[in-house]
Design goal:
elongated, 2 helices, little secondary structure
Amino acid sequence: SHSFDCMNCALDFSDPKPCHQCGKVPFASQAMIACDKVWHKLCFKCKDCGSLLSKGKENPHKGEPYCKKCYDTNFKLNKVTV
């Protein structure tokens, strides 16, 4: 797993990183870093329902992005009031 400190480091064109979703290398204007991976902005979607996500609005789980609803449904423990 790679951790990127800045967009320029992640998008080093001497060693381009493909989009985690589609496998194609994005142009810098189309690229983003999230969940320690490179994505096209239009490929950054919830792993479960496929809704488009914005950087910072994802709920990561095991390196994959989820929307809040899918994350809560699939991974959040139900809290029981005693």
